[in-house]
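Ticket #4471: complex job returned nothing on first submit. Input attached below:
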Amino acid sequence: MSDKGLDLTLHVWRQPNRKAPGKFVDYKVTNVSQHASFLEMLDILNESLVAKGEEPVAFDHDCREGICGMCSLMINGRPHGGNKATTTCQLHMRFFSSGDEIWIEPWRANAFPVIKDLCVDRSAFDKIIQAGGFITANAGSAADANDILVPKEEADAAMDAAACIGCGACVAACPNSSAMLFTAAKLSHLHHLPQGQGERGRRTLAMVSAMDAAGFGNCSNHYECEAACPKDISREVIAEMNRDYAKASFAHKEHAGKADGA
Amino acid sequence: MLKLDPRTPTGPIGEQWTKAKFDFKLVNPANKRKYKVIVVGSGLAGASAASTLAELGYNVSCFCFQDSPRRAHSIAAQGGINAAKNYQNDGDSVYRLFYDTVKGGDFRSREPNVHRLAEVSVNIIDQCAQLGVPFAREYGGTLANRSFGGAQVSRTFYARGQTGQQLLLGAYSGLSRQIGAGKVKMFPRTELLDIVVADGRARGIVVRDLVTGAISSHSAHAVLLCTGGYGNVFYLSTNAKGCNVTATYRAYKKGAGFANPCYTQIHPTCIPVSGDYQSKLTLMSESLRNDGRVWVPKSKADIAKHPDQIGDGDRDYYLERKYPAFGNLSPRDIASRAAKEQCDDGRGVGPGGRGVYLDFRDAIKRDGKPRIEEKYGNLFEMYERITGEDPYRVPMRIYPAVHYTMGGLWVDYHLQTTVAGLFCLGEANFSDHGANRLGASALMQGLADGYFIIPYTLGNYLAGVKADSLVDTTNAAFTDAEAGVKARLDKLMNIRGKRSVDSFHKALGQIMWEDCGMARSKESLERALTAIPKLREEFWRDVSVLGERDSFNQSLEKAGRVADLLEFAEMLVNDALVREESCGGHFRVEHQVEGEAKRDDDNFCNATVWEYKGDGVAPERNLEPLVFDNVHLATRSYK
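Support reply: We reran it on our side without changes. The output follows.
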């Protein structure tokens, strides 16, 4: 791989706040190292903007190693840039070529309003978890950890779903802005474990209600979410959730439609 | 002079915590709801403390600067969490974990605190398993373990390479349950900018809403700082970009003593720096050293060769050579210095000669690729994504990087700082890891503090505080603090200089890494003490913060944090200068025997606690003597 720097044209979404209209603004960045990450490329852009007295582009990021879920960005129409199982912060410039034009936008979904430029408000995800994405167990109440045996296959399946970083790429990718993959991943994680069984029905109903209440759309089986997920969460979790939802709707009729299942 | 009473219990070490718990005063269940508690930070310490205190019935408010409590930097911990379960039947015990931690910390921690940590470690695993943390399991369903540095038993519990994430999501789920139930009021995207102290007690905090820029005050009977470490004083570190020292430094300025800031941990296995645009460094978990072998070419002539072309006889597996008993699992400080030593000797590999190989060739040959993939697959993928190289075929290149900070606010056995009602948990405090933290012990400490220690010690404090003693936020103590916060923000906004905040942060990091990093000397530290004030002066003259004060403004957020780091750095360097010995992560080149750290127990068997005396005035140095009744002071050997 050559170490030649890249010259790029960026079309970046700028929007001062939630209420003001936004627009694409064009910028040039030059001689960007191929070893730089995408966010480091934006750092370089921002340094050049500050030097010119222009306000830097706001974007969310924190750990920059693909685990906190804070970074986002639609890059050329693909969440996190479209590389398989890669977050924006782990996307490196070696996947681009000199002369490329790159379109950079925030996640777009009614449930994720824009805060500024490329930053959006994802607190709707927290509300879904608050409705039931937990196992009720106060500190100090647990028995010895080896008293609950979890066969390796089940523990692995739980871990596969638990790998979700809550970034919202699934919602951004979905033509319906559905949060089914996110919600179902949390349910699948807890429902593959014996500890999660006690609240299974009410948890499913409560989290689905919260998801609907937050303004996310429904699933119509496009599976864009799975393709966009930086943690490779399988769409099969959605099928598990639908089965649980159907079962729980019969078993817990009195809870159906209530967001307070917790 | 600070009053440094560690309030450690008396009696045999194994009975102290039990005795303390019985002696603590209690708050009757019906009265708990009358008390307000502020928790700052939502990582393992903060989330576990906030949820547990809410479960007990206290009124809790929790604050974090991230957009969700689930994103706190605990999430990035990879390898595991220690606990003295002895599920492997390999000789582990509470006492052995205690012993390993005291020794690993190079005899600079407080024995009773460490023993308590080892005791509650077993409860943490129980609690986390109950909350649904998907720990790795054996086929029969029991919990699996692996080994970590500084231990000869297998006591580390893990969830693939994402243990921190899974533990944090567990703590976050418990916190979310309490938020949903209305027991915790959560303030995401909100940053602490000051702590309010009146009549000698912590009364609340002043915060900035990062979305609107609004400044507001919050009053409480007690304030818990769970705000993590200060590794970002080095700019390049494995910390998240947002990690900062502001909360603990503000507390220091309000009277809380700051202990041992010079104890900084350099992690031996990180991906090397690739260019000047570099914004952070990525850790490759210590767990990799279970199977990976660390080496450099024996001869300088071989450094540019492809590793495949260097035969076994021409490779120097220097950790195995120097430390045969612990080999590749030597503790972090020792492994880091050994890597630096090889590179300083001109045998480092990769760009700039700042790298050593971490090689899985033999492990893949022994166990097969699928087994290695199962254990470390996500780490290998991460490495390939960043470097473009496939570690199944080419050895990883690694180099030490700043990772963790053992120093922090001084706390007593109750986790209370030198300010009454102000508590400090997790990485933000100083007590348990001494001068060097062992791998997989940070997660343990954060959760121990939050789930199993603060619920007892805070109750003891609140039992002596009247419920109606809450100070109203219209009181001058709050309005003055708010005015101070606003004035400082205005000052930053009005400089309108030319240099970006990041450029100052990078310059500070350069000074710290070069002159106060893996090896420190009187000369280098004095050089740093000249450079830092100059840089700080330039910052306040020439920093450029664009945008508006009362809106979402990431430059302003960073500017406030870097301003605090620029002051804090000086305290750190000073601490390194006065500690005329080498211990753990603090290596003074003047104090060594054959390349190994040389402690001076006659003069430095203590914690240094810095006391703020005013801006521009040298802080006062206080000492807490450390007593080793159980683990006898000895030269640490891993040979």
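Chain B has a mean pLDDT of 96. Closing as resolved unless it happens again.
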